[in-house]
Amino acid sequence: MRVKPYNKAFMVIHGTLLSLVLLTVYGFYSFDYKDVNFVEASIQTLQNVKMMFIEPHFSHFTFQEALYQVAITLGLAFLTTVFGAAIALFLGIFAAQNLTNKAVSAVIKGVVAFIRSVPTVLWVLIFAVAAGLGSVAAVIGMTFHSVGYLIKAYSEAFEEVDKGMIDALKASGAGWWQIIFQAVLPSTATYLVSWTFLRFEINFAVAVAMGAAAGAGGIGFEMFMASGFYYDIQEVGMITYFILIFAILLELVATRVKKNLKTAEV
């Protein structure tokens, strides 16, 4: 068994972790708990969890209305994913270093790195200044972040294309767009679909949050109303189950599509 040496990196990492642990302990110790009874609070929390997940039910809307609200959330996620994928596919080609000028690639990658560094909810709020809170700001903000995410994913997939294939097509007289459509896109189709479905799943979760944070509607807004307006934790539990079921269905569909694509390639 090899023993790791106590080098500078080892000391810095473990010193940082120890400092964070001590600060956390001190933070909990110095809190003003205002005579909170932790035993009673724990029991009440468990009762609330039981009511939320073991006794869920709808109080302020029906099952059919819940399906409609989920459809709105799915539509918002699908729309932003399609818009983002269309824009990212075009810009991702120019961001790939093996397909375009390195300066152009560096500029695009620098811009999308900045876009990705800002959370989606902040982009939505930024665009809400111009468009107002609602579905319009949510679509623009989510699309903006999706573009930044997918450009990075697509460009890295394009950069993995075999250089020999591209050189062979160039030697045979193929033009730049012919290389894109006859070599790059067909050889990376599985990766493109995989990344697009992954972003769709992310956008579904973001659309739920934007329904509450930006008033974009959908099941997220209903959860916000149930928790912050009606204080109905049983309805919150039912909505949570709805979201979980549809998230699992999306994952199953994505897995099936990727499996079929891989089978078709073979």
UniProtKB/TrEMBL annotation:
It is a multi-pass membrane protein. PROSITE patterns: ABC_TM1 (PS50928). Pfam families: BPD_transp_1 (PF00528). Gene3D superfamilies: MetI-like (1.10.3720.10). Keywords: Cell membrane, Membrane, Transmembrane, Transmembrane helix, Transport. It is found in: Cell membrane. GO terms for biological process: transmembrane transport. Residues 70-254 form the ABC transmembrane type-1 domain. InterPro entries: MetI-like, MetI-like_sf. The keyword Metal-binding does not apply. Belongs to the binding-protein-dependent transport system permease family. This is Phosphonate ABC transporter permease protein phnE1. It comes from Bacillus thermotolerans.
